[in-house]
Structure formats: C-alpha cells, structure tokens
TrEMBL record:
This is SKP1-like protein. Pfam families: Skp1 (PF01466), Skp1_POZ (PF03931). Residues 125-171 form the SKP1 component dimerisation domain. It comes from Carex littledalei. Involved in ubiquitination and subsequent proteasomal degradation of target proteins. Together with CUL1, RBX1 and a F-box protein, it forms a SCF E3 ubiquitin ligase complex. The functional specificity of this complex depends on the type of F-box protein. In the SCF complex, it serves as an adapter that links the F-box protein to CUL1.
Length: 173
C-alpha cells in the first residue's frame, strides 16, 4: 500500500465547503482530477462544486480502496524478498468487484449522488458499479414497479401507454 505521508497531498472542497485532504495517488483515480493536475502541475486545491460532502467522502473511500487493491496486487514478495506473499493477503478482481457492489448498496438518494459524482469526476469503475446497482434494481420490473421504486409520476394517458407498449412489445414481452 502507498504511504500517504510521502505522497503529495491534494485538497478537495465539496459544494458545501467541506475540505478533504487526500493523497494525490488516491485522487488520481478520477480522470477529471488527473487532467486538472496534469494541466496545472502546482495545483494542490481543487473545488468540486457539483459534489456534496457525504458523497465526496464515499468517492474518496472508493478511490482509496482501489489504490490499496492495486498496490497490494503489485506486491509479490514479502518485505524481505524471500517468498511470495500468501494469497490471502492479495485482493482478487472478484473480491474487489464484490466490494464495489456492497459499496454501492446505499439508499436511492446516495446512489444517485454517487452516479452523478462518478460521472462528473470520471471514475469509470464507480460509475459502472453504481449503474449496475440501478440495473439490478429494475431488472424484471414492470413500468409501474419502476415508477414506484424511483417515485416517478406516470404522465401518460392510457392511450399513450398502450401505443408505447405496442411499439416496444419486445421490451414488455
């Protein structure tokens, strides 16, 4: 695992003004932040007006876990270099995917915020996991059930609904 004491620290500021000081290796999981740092190499403070503090805290947790997983997977020998590390200390891709899916098992409001933040910050893995969670939530559901899940008002007339059903029979069959 990377030593955060030797890594350059980046300050992220949420939409409410909450400040998070995070190792550069962690924030580099975001392609958006990566581009900002590449374009302005001396920058150490990045405001994120589109990300609320609770969401930013979760995004940082996600990024830390993925940096740790990448660091652990690179280590093949013990510290003294004598033998391979036991498999139990390595994080497999499957274990990391399972962790990702548990990580996004949050209420709908936070899930929405995570999707928006992951998209804004361009964190592909988090966006994929959060969108997969939404897909899992609606799989096998009819339109009315989906409306209930997401509290969506049905503004179609019965005639419009029938037309849509006929045009998209493949989806409702």
């Amino acid at each position: 695992m990377s030593d955060s004491t030797t890594s350059k620290m980046i300050t992220l500021k949420s939409s409410e003004g909450v400040v998070f000081v995070v190792p550069e290796t962690v924030v580099m999981q975001s392609k958006t932040i990566c581009h900002v740092i590449e374009d302005f190499s001396t920058i150490t403070f990045i405001p994120l007006p589109n990300v609320r503090a609770p969401t930013l805290a979760m995004v940082i947790e996600y990024c830390k876990k993925h940096v740790e997983a990448a660091d652990v997977s690179k280590i093949e020998m013990t510290e003294d270099g004598s033998r391979p590390m036991p498999a139990s200390t390595r994080i497999s891709d499957k274990e990391l995917r399972n962790w990702d899916m548990q990580f996004v098992d949050v209420d709908k409001d936070m899930l929405y915020d995570l999707i928006m933040a992951a998209d804004y910050l361009h964190i592909e893995g988090l966006l994929d996991a959060a969108c997969q969670k939404v897909a899992d939530m609606i799989t096998g559901k009819n339109p009315e059930m989906i409306r209930q899940i997401f509290n969506i008002k049905n503004d179609f007339t019965p005639k419009e609904e029938e037309e849509i059903s006929c045009e998209n029979l493949w989806a409702f069959g």
